[in-house]
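#lab-general

N.A. 3:47 PM
ok so I finally got the sequence cleaned up, no stray characters, all 218 residues accounted for. can someone with queue access submit it? mine expired

B.Y. 3:52 PM
send it over

N.A. 3:53 PM
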Amino acid sequence: AGAVRAPWVEPPARCVCYGLGRFSACPAARSQLAFLLLLLEELGVPPGRCSLFDPAFSGEEEAVLGELGLRLLPENEEGKHSLGGSATLFYMVHCGKALYNNLLWRNWSLEALPKMVIIGNSFKGIEERLLPRILKRDYSYIAKVLPGTEEAALPAHPRYLDTFNDTSIHWFPLQKLQELPPEVWDFVEEPTYEDCDDLEIIRKGDGAEGHSLAAPES
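B.Y. 4:20 PM
back already:
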């Protein structure tokens, strides 16, 4: 919690969680849900200000989340969630690269990015695993924001290595963003992923029954 609390300029007002998965059947997803609830408590974010979406949720799981006081997003946003001016924690453990890219695109401004913190797959790890031309072509907003990103690996715990492997806390200090070339803010075309072979997300309108927004764990 201390590692997640450190980056904030102002305390988070709300939280958005994507890709939690089938926590009724998956122990790793249950641990991720438990950690989310602890984080909300530590950060002082009421459960009613935490919204979740995963097309894999069953009706029973949705009812459990409601009992916990959490909110369900009414539709698949494909990660394109606008901050709306509020400091927001995005909890996206093991999600597909396109979800992070879509989220960055939706909030691509010097005003919005400093107000968000992302807990999810290491951006540095994404950069290391992809060829530079693929990163720039398919996930251009991740590529462009990397020089303006601060990243800290989530502290490892031997019991939860598989649950939170490759997970980092990402934030975007205004000073670092202002050092980026001015032209990076000029091109804000919505991502399409026409040439992407491993999209790793369920698109709005796809047959999403039994699938998750999260990427398969390696």
